[in-house]
Design brief:
- This is ABC transporter ATP-binding protein.
- Keywords: ATP-binding, Nucleotide-binding, Transport.
- InterPro entries: AAA+_ATPase (IPR003593), ABC_transporter-like_ATP-bd (IPR003439), ABC_transpr_LolD-like (IPR015854), MacB-like_ATP-bd (IPR017911), P-loop_NTPase (IPR027417).
- GO terms for molecular function: ATP binding.
- This protein is α/β, with parallel strands linked by helices.
- About 30% of the residues lie in helices and about 25% in strands.
- It contains 7 helices and 10 strands.
- The strands form 2 sheets. It has a 6-stranded mixed beta sheet with strand order 6-7-8-3-9-10, with helices on both faces.
- The longest helix has 18 residues.
- It binds adenosine-5'-triphosphate.
- The site of adenosine-5'-triphosphate has 12 residues, from strand 2 and helix 1.
């Protein structure tokens, strides 16, 4: 079943069109990579799906309900509960320790301090950074910060993780390690992932790749201009039989 759906989504920034009519269905537990060249609208689509941006036209549905028409407070609540977001730079709160950062979404959702602390420790352990529980982001490597940020995105048990180039700031090895862990944990819990990336190696972790080009889904899926794709020869005299 497709629990997350975009229908004919159009979005511009002033005079600049970013999405020119994108439809996408994401099934429960599916891992979808959104790829395409720089500026093709990947981040805008992710932000529209996650309820961060509102489309100018079209609809975004979650569980069959239109969320793009919800007021900001309701969309923001959705992002604290059923949705989780993860960006290129983990955006950890610099004044808080790793454990406090990971516990934060739970505390905001009303979980008690003790339970939030316990869950934060458990998630930091799962990402191999339990020993950094009392360390602040400034004293961690980029990879360690991103592991903490990933733990924070998963701690509330979201149904969908929206990740925008989540490993883009890391070297290849650290990036793939973080991603492997994210994908493995998501698969264990049946969490859906919508992942924006321009790296084919990263996209290969997904079940499916959706390629955008100039604000629309590329029907060739190859990033090629359809008019340049050679068609099989046809017509009189060209029948290969
Ligand atoms: N805040 C903004 N203000 C004005 N134009 C914007 C803004 N954000 C994006 N755009 C424009 O919208 C289009 C789509 O941008 P978007 O960031 O969605 O693409 P992208 O595929 O994610 O790009 P990249 O891979 O470079 O991050 C681009 O032409 C971009 O310049």
């Amino acid at each position: 079943m497709s629990r997350l759906q975009a229908r004919d989504v159009v979005r511009s920034y002033g005079p600049t069109p970013a999405l020119r009519g994108v439809s996408l269905d994401v099934a429960d537990g599916e891992i979808v990579a959104v790829t395409g060249p720089s500026g093709c609208g990947k981040s805008t689509l992710l932000h529209c799906l996650a309820g961060i941006l509102r489309p100018d036209e079209g609809a975004v549905r979650w569980n069959g309900e239109r969320i793009d028409t919800w007021p900001e407070a309701a969309r923001s609540r959705l992002r604290r509960t059923e949705f989780g977001v993860l960006f290129q730079f983990g955006q950890l709160v610099p004044e808080l320790t790793a454990a406090e950062n990971v516990a934060l979404p739970l505390l905001l959702a009303g979980t008690g301090r003790r339970e939030a602390g316990r869950a934060a420790g458990e998630w930091l352990d799962r990402f191999g950074v339990g020993h950094l529980a009392d360390v602040r982001p400034g004293a961690m490597s980029g990879g360690q910060q991103q592991r903490c940020a990933t733990a924070r995105a998963l701690v509330t048990g979201p149904r969908v993780i929206f990740a925008d180039e989540p490993t883009g700031a890391l070297d290849t090895l650290s990036g793939e390690e973080v991603l492997t862990q994210l994908v493995q944990l998501a698969r264990e819990q049946g969490t859906t992932i919508v992942l924006v990336t321009h790296e084919p190696r990263i996209a290969a972790y997904a079940d499916r790749e959706v390629m955008l080009r100039d604000g629309v889904v590329d029907p060739t899926g190859l990033g090629l201009d359809e008019t340049l794709v050679p068609l099989p020869a046809a017509g009189p005299g060209t029948d290969p039989r």
